[in-house]
């Protein structure tokens, strides 16, 4: 820490004189989280070298980090249809890591090594089952209402898969394909066990599905809407096995969970259960569906379920018609304006906020009242609505600052609106003097998701807001027809929102979370014992043959592989098992074989393997792809394939 302090002291002195040179419009006057001051006029004068849009409301906190200075937050970002997840440092916006998940990555060897293929799943010929993915929502595991740094999860909308990322290594360790659903979109982990209230950490992950499909989807019932359905899926957070599914009316968009663990919620559209585009938008209101998790699990225990097709997963009936009696209902349908999009739980644990999308409103639903309805103590489900207020055009997603304010993206208005939830409730209750809109900020352009630092936890700290703008237009150097998205950073520590930075990102992040850095403890070197195939001593390096199956046991130690050459015969099935015996942090080696589609890295004390058919006789220099040593370029072995 001492090192960092001195860097930031240095920054305080230096920044006063160099703010314009840094080209960071209007943010030069204050440094660090503790030094915010209202420098509006001075900032405007200093911003001649800055961006086209100067901050509207003064200086704001400085998001810039000096060389060697660490960020304050991890940003866990979805990578959209790149299929990956990304890690940014915030507030600087520096990209620290890309985590291959549903995509192939020839740097890491994801989709190439046997270990990654085992996670991805393979076809009978050994190739990955799917090669594409579309990640939207990243959420992390909880304990005591805040992040516990164990896992993050991300969905694949294309192939309905849920992936888990270990937050000690920032690598994907499990992928589960959900049965009988399509358009798996919203996900959210529970925040404590809904059944055993003594367990105060994440136990399950809930998954909504957007597209109706026939049950089973085997070509039989193509045009009969009554055979179609959408299933809400519960996955075990530890085993990653699917525990149960719940059939509901309509399509599910985003998912949120309550802090008491009892309820999950999903915004629903297409109440009409239409299977053609035009049939999906006739009803005036859709719903936010609440799932009573304990009751669903009891129904599963009691055998009150069906199964669909070949799947053995229990499917309970959560449709509206089957759940009219609150005392036994598994689900509650709270009516909201039609085609809602995001649903977010407020950090005070009291409210769920549904963004209207087609309606210019947000609906505030009170958790206590929903629980009261399930207990039969509320005669009308509509009484769960604490407020429904107008915000602007195209509300999509909402973040919180922990001080009672919500921040909602207005896609069509290209704006962030900051509004006060308590005032909105007063206004809705008839107090027309209640001013619930606190501030508006134009963003560039058309925001989808937004999130604030620690916003989805009891520790929402109201420091930073990131806005995922879908269009960057002319905000960055032109690079041809494809534009980057624009992640904008906003200082929300004061009354006014202050836009402080733009960051181009490769298409196309959706949701992200901003996690205080001390919540995450990484391991920087692997443990050799965690890998059954590890070669513990370079002296054990060898070539083993069983029929035409050949296994190469190999180690890397800078700057050499333990075998200088290895011989196989044409037609052999060759498995190379490579252990990186270097123990030093940041000493990664690579292993590439020309013409054989092999490339992957091994981190310190890690073991990985690849299997390929030696179908091309000749000499192939296997070489280290990852710069590791002054003799990195010399680090190679000769693969000899005899004819
Ligand atoms: Cu609004 Cu997939 Cu969360 Cu995109 S979704 S923005
Ligand atoms: Cu080993 Cu480069
Ligand atoms: Ca775009």
UniProtKB/TrEMBL annotation:
<dbReference type="Pfam" id="PF13473">
    <property type="entry name" value="Cupredoxin_1"/>
</dbReference>
<comment type="subunit">
    <text>Homodimer.</text>
</comment>
<dbReference type="GO" id="GO:0005509">
    <property type="term" value="F:calcium ion binding"/>
</dbReference>
<dbReference type="InterPro" id="IPR008972">
    <property type="entry name" value="Cupredoxin"/>
</dbReference>
<dbReference type="InterPro" id="IPR041142">
    <property type="entry name" value="NOS_propeller_2"/>
</dbReference>
<dbReference type="InterPro" id="IPR051403">
    <property type="entry name" value="NosZ/Cyto_c_oxidase_sub2"/>
</dbReference>
<feature type="domain" description="Cytochrome oxidase subunit II copper A binding">
    <location>
        <begin position="547"/>
        <end position="643"/>
    </location>
</feature>
<keyword id="KW-0186">Copper</keyword>
<dbReference type="InterPro" id="IPR041114">
    <property type="entry name" value="Nos_propeller"/>
</dbReference>
<protein>
    <recommendedName>
        <fullName>Nitrous-oxide reductase</fullName>
        <ecNumber>1.7.2.4</ecNumber>
    </recommendedName>
</protein>
<dbReference type="GO" id="GO:0050304">
    <property type="term" value="F:nitrous-oxide reductase activity"/>
</dbReference>
<dbReference type="InterPro" id="IPR006311">
    <property type="entry name" value="TAT_signal"/>
</dbReference>
<comment type="similarity">
    <text>Belongs to the NosZ family.</text>
</comment>
<dbReference type="InterPro" id="IPR011045">
    <property type="entry name" value="N2O_reductase_N"/>
</dbReference>
<dbReference type="Pfam" id="PF18793">
    <property type="entry name" value="nos_propeller_2"/>
</dbReference>
<keyword id="KW-0106">Calcium</keyword>
<keyword id="KW-0479">Metal-binding</keyword>
<dbReference type="Pfam" id="PF18764">
    <property type="entry name" value="nos_propeller"/>
</dbReference>
<keyword id="KW-0732">Signal</keyword>
<comment type="similarity">
    <text>In the C-terminal section; belongs to the cytochrome c oxidase subunit 2 family.</text>
</comment>
<dbReference type="InterPro" id="IPR023644">
    <property type="entry name" value="NO_Rdtase"/>
</dbReference>
<dbReference type="GO" id="GO:0009279">
    <property type="term" value="C:cell outer membrane"/>
</dbReference>
<dbReference type="InterPro" id="IPR034205">
    <property type="entry name" value="N2OR_C"/>
</dbReference>
<keyword id="KW-0574">Periplasm</keyword>
<dbReference type="GO" id="GO:0005507">
    <property type="term" value="F:copper ion binding"/>
</dbReference>
<dbReference type="InterPro" id="IPR002429">
    <property type="entry name" value="CcO_II-like_C"/>
</dbReference>
<dbReference type="GO" id="GO:0019333">
    <property type="term" value="P:denitrification pathway"/>
</dbReference>
<comment type="function">
    <text>Nitrous-oxide reductase is part of a bacterial respiratory system which is activated under anaerobic conditions in the presence of nitrate or nitrous oxide.</text>
</comment>
<dbReference type="GO" id="GO:0004129">
    <property type="term" value="F:cytochrome-c oxidase activity"/>
</dbReference>
<keyword id="KW-0560">Oxidoreductase</keyword>
<dbReference type="InterPro" id="IPR015943">
    <property type="entry name" value="WD40/YVTN_repeat-like_dom_sf"/>
</dbReference>
<comment type="pathway">
    <text>Nitrogen metabolism; nitrate reduction (denitrification); dinitrogen from nitrate: step 4/4.</text>
</comment>
<dbReference type="InterPro" id="IPR028096">
    <property type="entry name" value="EfeO_Cupredoxin"/>
</dbReference>
<dbReference type="GO" id="GO:0042597">
    <property type="term" value="C:periplasmic space"/>
</dbReference>
């Amino acid at each position: 820490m001492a090192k960092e302090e001195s860097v930031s002291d240095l920054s305080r002195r230096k920044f006063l004189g160099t703010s314009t040179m840094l080209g960071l419009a209007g943010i030069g006057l204050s440094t660090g989280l503790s030094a915010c001051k209202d420098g509006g006029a001075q900032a405007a004068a200093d911003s001649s070298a800055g961006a086209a849009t100067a901050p509207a409301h003064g200086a704001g906190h400085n998001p810039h980090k000096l060389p060697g200075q660490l960020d304050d937050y991890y940003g866990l970002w979805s990578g959209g249809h790149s299929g990956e997840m990304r890690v940014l440092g915030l507030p600087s916006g520096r990209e620290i890591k890309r985590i291959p998940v549903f995509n192939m990555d020839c740097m890491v060897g994801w989709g190439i090594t046997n270990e990654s293929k085992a996670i991805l799943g393979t076809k009978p010929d050994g190739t990955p089952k799917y090669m594409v993915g579309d990640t939207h929502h990243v959420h992390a595991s909880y304990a005591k209402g805040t992040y516990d740094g164990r896992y993050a999860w991300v969905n694949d909308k294309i192939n309905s898969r849920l992936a888990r990322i270990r937050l000690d290594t920032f690598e994907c360790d499990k992928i589960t394909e959900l049965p009988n659903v399509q358009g798996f979109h919203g996900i959210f982990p529970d925040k404590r066990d809904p059944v055993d209230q003594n367990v105060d950490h994440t136990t399950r992950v809930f998954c909504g599905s957007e597209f109706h499909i026939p049950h089973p989807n085997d070509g039989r019932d193509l045009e009969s809407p009554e055979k179609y359905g959408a299933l809400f899926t519960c996955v075990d957070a530890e085993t990653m096995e699917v525990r149960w599914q719940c059939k509901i009316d309509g399509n599910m968009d985003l998912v949120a969970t309550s802090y008491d663990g009892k309820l999950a919620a999903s915004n629903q559209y297409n109440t009409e259960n239409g299977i053609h585009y035009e049939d999906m938008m006739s009803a005036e209101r859709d719903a936010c569906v609440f799932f009573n998790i304990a009751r669903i699990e009891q129904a599963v225990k009691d055998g009150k379920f069906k199964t669909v097709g070949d799947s053995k997963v229990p499917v309970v009936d959560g449709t509206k018609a089957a759940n009219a009696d609150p005392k036994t209902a598994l689900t509650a349908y709270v009516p909201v304006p039609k085609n809602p999009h995001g649903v977010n739980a407020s950090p005070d644990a009291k409210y769920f906020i549904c963004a209207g999308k087609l309606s210019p409103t947000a609906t505030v639903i009170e958790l206590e009242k929903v629980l009261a309805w399930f207990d039969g103590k509320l005669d009308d489900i509509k009484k769960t609505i604490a407020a429904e207020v107008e915000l602007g055009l195209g509300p999509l997603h909402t973040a919180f600052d922990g001080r009672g304010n919500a921040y909602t993206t207005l896609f069509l208005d290209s704006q962030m609106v900051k509004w006060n939830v308590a005032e909105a409730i007063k206004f809705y209750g008839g107090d027309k003097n209640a001013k619930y809109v606190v501030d508006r900020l134009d963003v560039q352009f058309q925001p989808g998701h937004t999130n604030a630092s620690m916003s989805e936890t009891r520790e929402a700290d109201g420091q930073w807001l990131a806005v995922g703008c879908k269009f960057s237009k002319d905000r960055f150097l032109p690079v041809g027809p494809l534009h980057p998205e624009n992640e904008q950073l906003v200082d929300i520590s004061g009354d006014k929102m202050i836009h402080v930075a733009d960051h181009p990102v490769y298409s196309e992040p959706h949701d992200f979370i901003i996690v205080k850095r001390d919540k995450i403890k990484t391991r920087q070197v692997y443990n050799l014992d965690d890998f059954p195939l590890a070669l513990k001593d370079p002296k054990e390096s060898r070539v083993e043959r069983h029929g035409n199956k050949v296994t190469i046991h190999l180690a890397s130690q800078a700057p050499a592989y333990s075998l200088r050459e290895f011989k196989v015969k044409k037609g052999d099935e060759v498995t190379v098992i490579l252990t990186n015996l270097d123990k030093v942090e940041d000493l990664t080696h690579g292993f590439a074989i020309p013409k054989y589609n092999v490339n992957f890295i091994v981190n310190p004390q890690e073991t990985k393997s690849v299997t390929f058919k030696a179908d091309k006789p000749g000499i192939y220099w296997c070489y280290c792809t990852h710069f590791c040593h002054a003799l990195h370029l010399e680090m190679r072995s000769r693969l000899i394939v005899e004819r």
